[in-house]
Amino acid sequence: MPTPVAPLRAPALAAVLLLALSACADPEAQGAAESGGAGGESPFNLAAEQDRVRAEAVPEIAGLVPEEIREDGALTVGHSSGGAPPLAFYADDDETVIGVETDVAQLVADVLDLEYRPEATGWDNLFLSVESGRYEAVFSNVTVTEERKDLFDFATYRVDTVSFEAATGHGFDEIAEPADIAGLSVAVGSGTNQEEILLRWDQENQDAGLEPADLQYYQTDSDTYLALQSGRIDLYLGPTPSASYHVEVARETEIVGTISGGGEVRAEIAAMTLKGNGLVEAVNAALDEVIGSGRYQEVLERWAVDGEAVTESEINPPGLPRS
Predict the structure, then answer these.
(1) pLDDT digits (tens, 9 = 90+) for 14-29
(2) Contact (CB, 8 A) for 34 and 249
(3) Degrees (nearest 5) of the Cα angle 183, 235, 301?
(4) What is the spatial distance between Cα 285 and Cα 45, in angstroms, rounded to a whole number?
């Protein structure tokens, strides 16, 4: 039987690593979700051949791409190699990265008249690779924070929300505020903004004299869901896209509450580029183009993420506060 493990703590190695680990919806911390479940066939296309939604090039927007980035005719985009469906994850060939993040990046590259070149790497390395120039952009469920804005520019394309999952037939009311988790056991990924929310909520409850929550940490989603099904934990808090995907595929849990990924403040998911190199303006305009054309909505609906849709892309909006 899987056993919970204590959160891992390590000293900061560098400023970029701090940015990578703090206040983020790190899909790697959630583990890769199962592609199939008790319900049998997945309702999603998990094959390497995706037949993605595509967009037409728009010359006036393509003209916004800085010349030094356009030189090789491609947009090299970083995605998390350990991501959970339906964000960015490996297809059934265990080589091709697919998901909503890759589909949105493809649309942006199309509008910018650039070849889309996806690359998968570890979560921490995404930030380092943008700084070094290896990646021109990152689409990987990255939350905008004030700390990250010191080094990177952002163009938003999804609202950042997180959801509580419970086993079907759980008997809970909606989980919407701190008092709702008092006395419950809740699984969460270590080092994520979900954990920060739960720690704040639990402290608020204890200050009010309520029973503390029991936060538990598992190495993989599989372990977490086994614990949820067996009743060893009451709830699991993770990114809403991953929760929605698991509900659709496994058909053994349900979402019992959805809140902002920033807890009490609005949080945004955004494409990340190197600060000041001019690419963010092109990415922002491309995102607005595909939002206006409806292609963006097609992609989000394809992966059941349309609940996080935005009506326009913003450049460097207010981010989560500095820690």
Answers:
(1) 444 444 444 455 554 4
(2) yes
(3) 145
(4) 29
User: How far, in Å, CA of 138 to CA of 118, rounded?
Assistant: 9
Question: Which of 173, 320, 307 shows the shortest CA–CA distance to 242?
Answer: 307
3-class state of residue 190 by DSSP: coil
**What are the residues whose beta carbons fall under 8 Å from the beta carbon of 189, sequence distance 6 or more?**
26, 29, 30, 195, 217, 238
Mean pLDDT, rounded, for 145-150 = 96
CA 30 from chain center: how many Å?
10
Nearest to residue 123, comparing CAs of 245, 17, 217? 17
Contact yes or no for 143/127 (Cβ under 8 A): no
Distance between CA atoms of 85 and 156, rounded to whole angstroms?
Answer: 20
Burial classification of residue 232, based on how many CB atoms lie within 10 Å of its CB (0-12 exposed, 13-18 middle, 19 or more buried): middle
What does the alpha-carbon distance between residue 80 and residue 302 come to, in Å, rounded to a whole number?
20
Count of CA atoms in the C-beta half-sphere (13 A) of 322:
5
Least Cα distance to 314 among 156, 159, 158 occurs for: 156
Q: What is the phi/psi pair of residue 104, to 5°?
A: -65, -40
At 30, the pLDDT band (50, 70, 90 cuts) reads very low
Q: How many residues does the chain have?
A: 323
Rounded distance, CA 148 to CA 257, Å? 28
Give the Cα separation of 98 and 85 in Å (integer).
9
Structure pTM? 0.83
